[in-house]
C-alpha cells in the first residue's frame, strides 16, 4: 500500500482546527489561548527541524552522531523535568536528578532492547535507536516530573507530620515512606493507564503511524507491545531512582528535614 503524501497546505488546513479551538478558548476566557497557539507553533517548528536532522542522521549513520543526538535529547528532557516542578531542589540538583534518572533507565532499556530484542545491524542504527530512545525519554520524563512534583509538594504539605515522626525516633526513610510511595505511584499511573486502555479505548501513536505507512497490522501490534513494555520499564526504574535520590536530598546527615533546599519554580 502506497503512503499518501501530505502537502503543507493540507497541514495548514489541520492547523485551522487548532486556531478554531483557540478562538473558543479566548471566548470562554480560559486563559490558555496563548499557550495553546504557542505550543502548536512550537510543535510545527520543532518537528520540521527534527525531520531535517533525522534525514541527515539516517544518511550518515555514524555512532558518534547518534550518540550526540541522544545526549542532546537527554539534556533537553532533563530541563523539561526541572521546569515542570512547582518546587525544585536548589542548585544543580533539580536538573541532575532528572537527567541522571533518565540516563540510567531510558538509555539502559533502549540499549538492551536494541541489542537483545530487536537486533538491527548495526545495533545503533538511527532508524531504530533514535525513535525508540525518543519514546522512552518522553514518557520517562513525564513520569519522573510527576513523581518529583508530588514528592516536593507532599513534603511541604506534611512537614509537621514528617518532623513529628523524626522526633519520635523514626529514620528519614520511615518518616517520608508514604510520601515516597505516593510519588512513585503518581509517576507510574500514566503508563499504567496507557497500557490498560491500549487497543480498547485508543490505538497508540506508533501503531497508528505504522499502519498508516502501510505496515501490516499484526507487525505494528508486535512493535507497539514491545514499545509499551519498554516504556513501562524505563518509566518505572527512572521514577524509583529519581524519588529515592530526591527524598534523600531533602534530609541532611543528621536526618533533619531541609525544606530550605527547595525553591519555587
UniProtKB/TrEMBL annotation:
Keyword Disulfide bond among record annotations: no
Coiled coil segments of this chain: none
Entry keyword annotation includes Transmembrane helix: yes
InterPro entries according to UniProt: UPF0014_fam
Localization in the cell: Membrane
Domain of life: Bacteria
Keywords linked to the UniProt accession: Membrane, Transmembrane, Transmembrane helix
Name of this chain's protein: Iron export permease protein FetB
Topology of the protein relative to the lipid bilayer: Multi-pass membrane protein
Record-annotated membrane-spanning stretches: 6-28, 35-58, 64-81, 93-116, 128-148, 183-203, 223-246
Naturally occurring in which organism (per UniProt): Microbulbifer aestuariivivens
One Pfam short name: UPF0014
Assigned protein family: Belongs to the UPF0014 family.
